[in-house]
Design goal:
Nonspecific Lipid-transfer Protein, Chain A; two-stranded antiparallel sheet
Length: about 260
């Protein structure tokens, strides 16, 4: 395992962009095949239907368009790792329902969303600041957050529709995993516990004696999708342990009080 990162993680803008397009394309391809009955199915997101969830997936990209339409902030006053803690889910739900009602042809809607997103990325530099809920962030950083949105809601769609099995783009899953792992280290700074999410991330967190060499005394390990579910509240710590989806050893390896990361 590589050592825990002490500097903010860097993301390659071209790879991130490709990952967002790939995962959005995976969702679009699956949506084309959904029947009206499948679109009416409930999801694990409260009262949202599959149709409303698909509309929300489109919002992952239209958010960029909306923010670019706002005046550019004078200076950057937010960090990429502030974003997971600044999401307003209640406001998003109402917009998703409205969009689902306004766009009966979801594939056409998603195609237009993708076209507009492409146009925006092609005409604005990655350094362009956006007024996000986490403060002013560069466009390139905000695009990284889109991988979290797309991976999480791909998983929500797969859970809602039996047999759907939308694939996960490797780079999108990697970026989402890393961003959420680094957010944990921000929420619980320290070096007593090592959290491993192979093959994409390892971070040290939680106050206590810092580990420097050999086998860490406190270790948590899980796979990427399980980590994403834990970090976003789709899976509880207890259920993950009971199902052997996560291993935890050491007196400081209990992350129950720190999860989920997203509200």
């Amino acid at each position: 395992m590589p050592p825990a990162r002490k500097r903010p993680r860097a993301y390659d803008p071209a790879r991130t962009r490709a990952a967002v397009f790939a995962q959005f394309g995976n969702v679009r391809a699956a949506v084309r095949a959904l029947t009206p009955e499948q679109l009416a199915l409930p999801t694990r997101l409260g009262e949202w239907s599959v149709r409303e969830l698909v509309a929300h997936v489109g919002m992952a990209l239209t958010a960029v368009d909306r923010l670019l339409g706002e005046p550019e902030p004078v200076r950057q006053d937010g960090r990429l790792l502030d974003w997971p803690f600044a999401i307003a889910a209640d406001a998003i739900a109402g917009t998703a329902r409205r969009l689902a009602a306004e766009h009966p042809d979801l594939d056409a809607h998603l195609a237009e969303v993708e076209r507009r997103f492409t146009e925006r990325l092609d005409t604005h530099p990655g350094s362009r600041l956006l007024p996000t809920s986490a403060g002013a962030l560069p466009l390139a950083d905000y695009v990284v957050t889109r991988t979290v949105e797309l991976v999480v809601h791909t998983d929500d769609l797969n859970a809602a529709v039996p047999g759907l099995d939308i694939p996960y783009d490797r780079q999108a899953l990697a970026a989402a995993t890393r961003l959420l792992a680094d957010a944990l280290a921000v929420k619980a700074p320290g070096g007593s516990t090592e959290v491993r999410i192979p093959p994409y991330a390892v971070v040290q967190c939680v106050e206590g004696p810092r580990h420097t060499r050999g086998t860490p005394p406190n270790v948590v390990e899980t796979e990427p999708l399980t980590w994403v579910r834990l970090a976003t509240g789709r899976l509880t710590w207890k259920d993950a342990l009971d199902a052997a989806k996560v291993s935890a050893s050491g007196e400081r390896a209990d992350l129950a009080a720190l999860l989920p990361l997203l509200s």
